[in-house]
Design goal:
Helices cover 43% and strands 15% of the residues. It binds 2'-deoxyguanosine-5'-triphosphate (DGT), calcium ion (CA) (2 copies) and zinc ion.
């Protein structure tokens, strides 16, 4: 449990109170508390566990503080449990549809009795939603589109969720009797952007109680199967976890098999057959069925004449051929990153100051950061106009001259307006070290118009990087509709770099598009889009995406030294 999880609980409480039509002041106090806790730099768990108080935190009253203590001490919240009983999960699920908030859910329930995704779908497709107050045909169509997207992603989870689940679960299982090793496999190990279920593999020296511990884990909702070598559970958040206990002699073979992907496995097996060998989850066997390897994962590769293939590219997208021909890429690693090129600060909607972000960059071992606050069109983020941006730059100059912890590049995330023009005057863009341009509004233009809009923005001579190029939010919002290949071609003409936004909800460009960008001849920048110093640690998710896209350090401009970067820009 961390601050983020407490904030989630309060956010959910506020949502449900909204649905049942509770007192608006009470609702607001939970929503505020959620926001405050999310932004807090201190760890609430340590504060409470060390006997401290939250009294001094503005916006956290007595009632909320008691709830927090309850959550820290018991791991759950009785109010939320009560609310869960009042409002069934089918209604709460409606909140997951993009564009539906608690107010709309309540309205739809009160007026049309909509209490499930199925009922929502039939109401929307038979044109019943458009007659509700504040809705119309457009909203209705939007909801239908969101529904389709939701159904596609149903049952899948973001990679970052996989990390938090794995972390707590593995920490818990580490105390099992005689456990030697436990490792995640599957799509999680391949660092796919979403995961269907988690696959854990363990070896134990002798008799173990790991399966008993596993089914007694706090977060278990359902035991799907329970045996000595394989057990499957479903957690309260809906994710399934499979745990297998293996013989040490075949651990490597099983790790390879259960890491997948399935398509990769099929290729590996047929390659083995061509060599008169057999590969299974138990090992590598010769024509006489004698086991010749399987303890270590690398046995699988070496025995069939392959060099080791990193999990992230085991997708049968050419990795087998590359491995056979010794042409595997030297994949980028987190340690190659020398700076972060999208960072927001208190000047707009960030939580930390420029100097705090620079300090964090220093801790991460970086050489430079680029401060990219929003421009004025992004009103909810209090975007900067020309005058404010220039003042901000003076401050950055001052910090750089006083030996800032890392070099601070003067930049901006300039908004791409509906017609493709930019939100700031060229005269100020010219003064920037780096210009990042992104779309934050008018997501639903027709394809041609959207493509032209982006290309027009790229044609501005001062634009260096296109931020979160497709605008998608994983499992939430589809990319905007435009012709990506044409945009890539234009980017090549205008020398514009494509961003891989590392924020776990975005990962935009995704792996496939990032590879296409590389093949077009473009460079990429992996940036966190951090709105607080701790979010700068999310860089690793962008690196996973880059690895899945076969990127090497030279493909990514923030692996360059400051001097190289400046020359390139
Ligand atoms: P997911 O869970 O949908 O995100 O994707 P994975 O890749 O984790 O798939 P999962 O959990 O169904 O199975 C784990 C791995 O086990 C998979 O990546 C490859 C291997 N595997 C599963 N079923 C088969 C199969 O029928 N044939 C082969 N060759 N391998 C399989
Ligand atoms: Ca899986
Ligand atoms: Ca599985
Ligand atoms: Zn942005």
């Amino acid at each position: 449990m961390d601050n983020h999880k407490i904030a989630d609980i309060f956010e959910e409480i506020a949502d449900i109170l909204d649905i049942v039509g509770d007192n608006p002041f009470r609702i607001r106090s939970y929503r505020n508390a959620a926001r405050i806790i999310e932004d807090l730099s201190d760890d609430i768990f340590s504060i409470i566990n060390e006997g401290g108080t939250l009294e001094n935190i503005k916006g956290i009253g007595k009632g909320i503080e008691e709830k927090i203590e309850e959550i820290v001490k018991t791991g759950s919240c009785s109010l939320l449990k009560e609310l869960h009983e009042k409002v069934p999960p089918e209604i709460r699920e409606l909140l997951k549809i993009e564009g539906l908030g608690p107010k709309k859910v309540k309205l739809m329930y009160d007026k049309l009795g909509i209490d499930s995704i199925d009922k929502l779908e039939s109401a929307a497709s038979s044109g019943k939603l458009r007659n509700l107050e504040g809705m119309g045909e457009k909203t209705e169509n939007k909801i239908l589109k969101s529904l389709e997207y939701y159904r596609q992603g149903q049952g899948r989870f973001k990679l970052s969720d996989g990390f938090s689940i794995c972390e707590s679960l593995i920490k818990y299982l580490k105390n099992a009797k005689n456990l030697i090793k436990i490792e995640p496999a599957g799509s999680f190990r391949r660092r796919q952007e979403t995961i269907g279920d988690l696959d854990l593999l363990a070896i134990c020296s002798s008799e173990t109680d790991i399966m008993e511990k596993f089914i007694k884990y706090d977060e278990v909702k359902e035991i799907i199967a329970h045996g000595d070598t394989k057990t499957s559970i479903k957690l309260t958040n809906g994710i399934q976890v499979d745990l297998r206990v293996l013989e040490p002699e075949s651990f490597g073979a099983a790790l390879h098999y259960f890491t997948g992907s399935k398509a990769h496995n099929i290729r590996v097996r047929s390659l083995a057959r061509e060599k008169g060998l057999k590969v299974s989850e138990y090992g590598v066997f010769d024509s006489g069925d004698k086991k010749i390897g399987g303890k270590d994962e690398k046995d699988i590769f070496t025995n069939i004449g392959l060099s080791y293939i990193p999990p992230e590219i085991r997708e049968d997208r050419g990795e087998i051929e590359a491995s056979l021909n010794n042409k595997l890429p030297e994949l980028i690693e987190l340690k190659n990153i020398r700076g972060d090129l999208q960072i927001h600060t208190v000047e707009t909607d960030g939580k930390n100051t420029v100097i705090e972000m620079a300090q964090k960059a220093k801790e991460l071992g970086y050489e430079y950061i680029s401060i990219t606050n929003h421009s004025k069109a992004v009103k909810i983020a209090h975007g900067l106009d020309e005058k404010k941006l220039r003042k901000h730059f003076e401050e950055i100059d001052r910090l750089n001259s006083k030996k800032a912890p890392v070099h601070i590049l003067k930049s901006v995330e300039v908004d791409i307006l509906a017609d493709g023009s930019l939100d700031l005057d060229d005269s100020v863009l010219k003064e920037c070290d780096v210009v990042l341009a992104s779309i934050h509004s008018y997501f639903n233009l027709p394809e041609k118009e959207m493509t032209q809009r982006i290309i027009k923005a790229l044609s501005n001579p001062y634009v260096n990087i296109l931020g979160h190029p497709t605008g998608r939010l994983i499992l939430e919002r589809e990319p905007y509709v435009f012709n990506l290949r044409e945009v890539f071609k234009a980017a090549l003409d205008y020398n514009v770099i494509m961003e891989i936004n590392a924020y776990p909800d975005r990962l935009d460009l995704n792996d496939i598009h990032a590879l296409q960008a590389k093949e077009t001849g473009l460079k990429l920048a992996i940036s966190t889009d951090a709105h607080s110093s701790s979010q700068m640690e999310l860089m690793v998710y962008g690196v996973y995406t880059a690895r899945r896209a076969w990127l090497e350090p030279e493909d990514v401009i923030n692996t360059y030294t400051l001097k190289e970067l400046k020359t390139f820009i």
